[in-house]
Every structure is written in structure tokens, then in C-alpha cells.
Fold this sequence. Notes:
CATH superfamily of the domain at 12-27 and 63-150: Hotdog Thioesterase
Radius of gyration: 18 Å
Order of helices and strands: EEHHHHEEEEEE
Largest sheet: 8 strands, antiparallel
CATH architecture of the domain at 12-27 and 63-150: Roll
Number of helices: 4
Amino acid sequence: MAELPIALDIHWDELPVGTRFRTRKRTVTETDLVGFVNLTWLTEELFGNADPGDRAAMGIAGRVVPGGLVYTFAEGLVAPSFQAAGLAFLHTEIDMQGPTLVGDTLCVDCEVIEQRATSKPDRGLVRTRNTVLNQRGTAVLVYTPLRLMRRRGA
């Protein structure tokens, strides 16, 4: 499999199936959790109650982060790689693999699993399998976005 250094100008025709790269890292903070929960009104006790006794009764020791926040962080880490050539985010499927907690540091392993031309010669479609990993190397979320991208030189 081809290893690709993270770059800011990857085009669809430079991403054959099997290409892999890993993003930078990002640590999830308490401020991130509070801001996201307040912005989205995800007022579930799971996300808002930090009382240790209540957390123990829930069976979760730390402050759980909503999957939506994990996904948006993942896209924030991946997006710079496609910013010069990305035209549209067309579809994805998301599979939550495990919890993410405040203090976890995330990165994304990306592997190209589909690449094809469109009817327009200046663009193509690329699907990746993006695996979000925590600092222990444990997968916490996997998603498979399909992106419309420019061809180099088009």
C-alpha cells in the first residue's frame, strides 16, 4: 500500500486505491465538550453530569464526548488534505466503535478504498475509510466519506 505524507493539495488522480495517510493529532478538552453540548443542545445527563457518584452509576468513569463532536474533529483533521481539490462531500456512513472521553487525543488513519473518474474529465470520486484513533491506538469511530475532487492541472 502506498504511504502518502499529509499534504494540503492532494487531487483525486493522486489517490489510488490503497493509499494511506495519518492526520495530525487533536486533544479533546472540557471546553470542547461544553461548547459542543451548548451549541447543539445535547443536554443528556451523559454529557452534562460530572458528579463522580453519578458517573459511577452510569458505568462510565470519565466525561463522555458525543460522537458528533468526534466526527467533526475527524473531518477537521482530514479536511486540510483535500482543501485544494475538494469540491463536495457527497455521502458517508458512520460506525461508532467505542467511547471518547475528555482528555483523549485523536488522529485519523485514512485509506483510499475507492477511486473513479466521473463523466467530467476534470474531476473524480474518492472514498476513504477513515478510522479515528485515540492515544492508545484504539478505534473510536470509523466513517467512509465519498468526496468529489478536482484532477491535478484541471
